[in-house]
Amino acid sequence: MATKTEEEKSLAAKIREREQLVRKIVKFSLRLIAARGKVTTNDVRDSHTHVVREFTIGELRFVEDAGQSMMGGNNLYIEFQGRKVFDLTNRSATFKKGVAEKLYWDNARDDWFQEITKLLAVGSNRLIQKLASEAVAKKRKAEQEAAAAEKLNKLKTKARKLAIEV
What we know:
Layout: H1 6-36, E1 38-44, E2 49-57, E3 60-66, E4 74-80, E5 83-90, E6 102-105, H2 111-122, H3 124-161
Antiparallel strand pairs: 1-2, 2-3, 3-4, 4-5, 5-6
Helix pairs in contact: 1-3
């Protein structure tokens, strides 16, 4: 029985590392899309439902395209600066452990990978919490601004009734 050469060991290690990373990206992306994404397509057909959900953060856009046929068929892709840099295709009903029938990974650019690595370091739970608190703060600020504008409008209306130039 032949022993593994250094090249085989190195290649096997690279494959394991990439598979782990793909699983991590898939899990992270799907959690982020589920928590903060919006449905852009919801097409109910006779035997299945085709749903496209997406979420954008910074220059990264995460898209899950699920239920393409009654036998399954899912794509998870990531765009960076409007260009697809990651595309995972799986024909089964779900993304089982991040294993793909087909994977596109843009090796030409590493800037997208640096961005997603930063997000992975934060973690999906903390990122989702941060985004939720930012959304609450933004909503609160908008409500305060609307209340201030309403108050100013009432004052202006009262001033006009009293013949005060506004």
